[in-house]
């Protein structure tokens, strides 16, 4: 039976073990990478041996974070504690989340998604937090680990990316207090914003031009799509579509935006954004995905047209 832990119970799990396994989720974003690496460097600072993993391609935009190269696809071996960060369900971790490998070891999920399924044997979920990195910060503090610039920069990256630069409605006074402690420890806002928000490749800019010019308004739902052919035509091999969804919701007539991206596997990744007062997390959950009220997503069967019709039918019920 899966258990929900109090904060203190979850913190205590870190005290005894020497070898710890940490996993970031697939389609990794700045929050799961920043949370996983921030926790890794913090635990190493108190003498723990940490394996940090991700079963997916990790965007080069995060190359400025120390340890990024370590995020390879590994499964648990002899670690004494297994930790899964920032994911709402087991399928977000690929082969790393395999109960056959767990044995009697504690397996803890730390997350902030309202759609979290309490999927791990032990779970600590705080859905009031705008980012998982804020929760990790609380763990670091509770374990009396002194912050340094590396830990701080990883965690601030998580906060800034998930709050879109302190702009989401779940950015709280405590978010800003935590950010200010991280800046005091040596992290910089400019460093994150410059690397993550202000830079994309020329092919990615051109892809935006094509995708945005074909965007369609359906009532007050704005949608656009990116096919594998588009990605090939523009010579984009990895995550060139990143960040587009937020621009779509910038359209004044839109209350909800949806971006459909055809994956190499033929599956369709749908990202959704909603203005305050609307909620796309329920739609994402019904489609087998998850997320927050204002930002959620799911992975659907192709082709693009049928995935799009399925999602739009659900979204029309929300607006
Ligand atoms: Mn997150």
Spatial gap, N to C terminus: 37 Å
Give helix and strand order, one letter per element, not per position: EHEHEEHEEHHHHHEEHHEEHEEH
CATH superfamily of the largest domain: inorganic pyrophosphatase (n-terminal core)
Q: Which small-molecule species are bound to the chains here?
A: manganese (II) ion
Number of domains: 2
Tertiary shape: globular
Largest sheet, strands/sense/barrel: 6 strands, parallel
Low-confidence stretches: none
The number of distinct β-strands equals 12
Please indicate the percent range of residues in DSSP E strands (runs of 2 or more).
Answer: 15-25%
How many DSSP helices?
A: 12
Which second-level CATH architecture of the largest domain applies? Answer: Alpha-Beta Complex
Please write the CATH class name of the largest domain. Alpha Beta
- Based on CA atoms alone, the radius of gyration comes out at 19 Å
Query: Helicity level, as a percent range?
Result: 25-40%
On the 0 to 100 scale, the average pLDDT is: 94
Strand order of the largest sheet: 1-6-5-4-2-3
